[in-house]
Amino acid sequence: MNAPTYNFAYLDEQTKRMIRRAILKAIAIPGYQVPFASREMPMPYGWGTGGVQVTAAILGPKDVLKVIDQGSDDTTNAISIRKFFAKTAGVETTTSTDAATVIQTRHRIPEAPLRAGQVLVYQVPIPEPLRFLEPRETETRRMHALAEYGLMHVKLYEDIARFGHIATSYAYPVKVNARYVMDPSPTPKFDNPKMDNCPALQLFGAGREKRIYAIPPYTSVVSLDFEDHPFTRYKFDAPCALCGAEDSYLDEIVTDNKGSRMFVCSDTDYCEGRQAAGHRGTESVAPHKEAAHG
Amino acid sequence: MVEVTGPSDQPLLVADGLTKSYGRLAACRDVSFALYPGEVLAIVGESGSGKSTLLQMLSAQLAPSGGRVSYRMRDGVLRDLAQLGEAERRFLFRTDWGYVHQDPAQGLRMAVSAGANVGERLMAVGWNNYGRIRQTASSWLERVEIDIARIDDAPRTYSGGMRQRLQIARNLVTEPRLVFMDEPTGGLDVSVQARLLDLMRSLVNELGLAAIVVTHDLAVARLLSHRVMVMKEGRVIETGLTDQVLDDPREPYTQLLVSSILPP
Ligand SMILES: Nc1ncnc2c1ncn2[C@@H]1O[C@H](COP(=O)(O)OP(=O)(O)OP(=O)(O)O)[C@@H](O)[C@H]1O
Ligand SMILES: [Mg+2]
Ligand SMILES: [Zn+2]
Fold it and tell me: Per the confidence metrics, is the pTM higher than 0.90?
């Protein structure tokens, strides 16, 4: 049911066509930041207006939309974006990674493998990976054009010199299709390997910075590193306290007012799915929970 | 005075009729010369005589209004700089050339460690082994007399003389054949200048570097250069071997320059 006061998915058709052209160009040049005329959206910039505009431009009436924030479907941000599209586009929404055709995300890539035909839309605050060392926009553009990426390794060098290892753990730079260096900001580097050769289309929207970029399906995405300090995915010491998963990204949560903590999957859909399938962790809400504490 | 060690018969860089006009002002007029491998040329002259303008044209940072600059690439072919693509020109700039600025903040990344400042050019040409980059950076810091213990400090914590020496290390790490310097000792204390000049002189000799040094200071020209070019109002008015020009200037302007700056 479309709400009568809005055009489908809020943006007018003219604007959506403009955004789609930028998306097509981004897909044609994997990892390249395409400028677009970002519009005001009825939400603050920090809420992912770039991602919202990309989602609005690609959404069709038959799509099923999932929105996650830090891996969770239930934060204020995720809920309000989901409601926004339910209201303005009347599309079906879901929390299931598997059931979704379009997934808008901030910070995480779902743990469940994505498949061909799905689109993952990232909300990006800072699209320019060279920015922190080279603030001049004209110069960073030239560096991309000429594939002069020595500066990225300067940053990694600084990490190792200071901390003994590459300490960058979010927004870890990658090279896309052996050409453009891209900032997957602000996802944790844990998720970087999922971007490589992914069957789903990945689109990135930066609202305030007015940039769109893309990783087409099955494209090589390589995390930058040194041969004697290779990229490593973050490894957690313990499995998820709720579902026992050993291969998922964990968040630390406080469980009571005495400061007790536990580590659980940040991807709530994945965690709940595993629990429903009978997997258990040390803190599972299960009949024998008290006993487990001893 | 420095000996020219085995001058090659093929020029490294050739300037031909270089001119730069700003409206009616000719900042640089019809300058021609050839620089040979291993040769150090000083460009002297009073403020506003066109030295920096000329240096910027020679190093392809400023397009001439007339004339051209050719450079012998590592493959031995003499190329017109204006005909190089941007990628080629930038590559030349960070491999076969060095550029030492008077203001180190223009030539260094002030917030990045000294090690990374020196390593950057190596990383830019594809070095991918942290240990080797750091090792090479350390040995260059040693060569320019910077304490290795300071390798992880940013140059903003360095003294003026150290910054200049770091700038030199950062440039020389790719073993360039030609280094441009614009007032490299400007703004430094006299004793700090002397140490820097000493270091530059021995590096230039050891590495067989060619250099073009712009300076107000005739003492710098005397200590570093084989040849000197005197500029006035955008023109080269006198040129020759450094000792000859400074000890026995032909032009009245040069005589004035020599007498006012050099002690009798
Ligand atoms: N971008 C510019 N626009 C207009 N005039 C310029 C420009 N750059 C230089 N000039 C003029 O060209 C002349 C030569 O300047 P240049 O900077 O080359 O002198 P210089 O010999 O390096 O002087 P100094 O010793 O003070 O550094 C000066 O008159 C200067 O004002
Ligand atoms: Mg000058
Ligand atoms: Zn879990």
Answer: no
